[in-house]
Sequence to fold (411 residues):
Amino acid sequence: MKAEAVEILVVEDVPEIASIFEAALQQAGYKVRLARNGREAQEALQQHFYPVVITDLMMPEMDGQALIDWMVRAEIRPQIIVITSVDEIDTVVEVIRKGVLDYVVKPVHTDDLLIKVERALERSRLLTLEQTVEEERRIRLQRQLEWTLWKQNIQQRAQDNLNRNLFNSLRTNFSQGAGFGVLLSLLSVVTQTAVETKDGYLIDEETMELLKENTEYAGRSLRQFQEIDSVISGSTELHCHTIQQIHSMMVDWIAEMESLAGLRGHTVVLSDPGTGFDGVCVEINAEQIKNAIVEVLTNALKFSPAETDVLVLLKKGRDKLFLSVMNQPLEKTEVVGIPPEYENLVFEPFFRINRTVQEMYDTLDSGLGLTLVQKIVNNHNGSVSLFNINDHVDEGIRVNAEIQLPLSPLR
Fold:
């Protein structure tokens, strides 16, 4: 999140101290709203969401304690940093137990303040999106009728049989050389232009390079078909992994994609797994799940504006693990993100909403990536969906690729 897009609320009754905070934050590029007491802060928060609130404790009319009690009850609450002095440490411990994130001690050091504000913004962004995703999920579930789900399940069984035949047929055709018009055209050129010598044939260097490139592309396409065919037709060996183990693997997978993320200045942020996962695990095939996650993350990087972040959240439901990958959608496109009418279509083979080709990512762009992701997740008795959510922090929308995997008792 860019500092200039963020407004911070500072609640301080002493004008000189308030001015110090205002100057330091504005120098760092933040917008600042000042309030002289808890009552003014309350009115400001009712009009506008501030992701971070920095508040003094001792103030007239409505003190910091009362303001904190009110803020922590909010549906989408800000991250709170309290201003304190050395002799108020016991009070600080008390308010931290209520939900305050951090504190700064007077006289305030600018570097320390800015580090804590940045940490608070990062936490606000993740928690706000978690709450938004949860609310969107609840609304979506309410709108789904049981007969629709039943109908989709029946159709999916028939579709799986169709897909098995489709991908097997396509794989056979590609392996036999039917398709790939470029390769055929190049081979035709070679037969017409190759110069025969006593040791063989001389082929134009540029033609040879094109042959090599398209042969590599053909091989990668064939391997993707083989992978989809294997996922559909073969059995998937699953092993029990704790949430902490999955989180650790995801740290490694994201690290492996660092150079890919850096191509257009993206940052991938992975949330902490949280609590409540004791005694449960997820039955997964680590290699297949890695392929699915990498595909989803690559899509998020390709179809989001440069120098934005991609957020990865892990959250526990009643009996499921929710894994969300969220990115801002590309601007100035005919379709923004994933509208409701496209939510099912995006998993169909060869369907693509956005025809933009990002050559720097060196991907196939065949329209089969999300199809593979869906097949992998289905093999894990899970589900995957792709939809837009409202981003209350950046005041826009994000595309959420959400994978749900069932939890099992830890053996």
Observations:
- The longest strand covers residues 396-409.
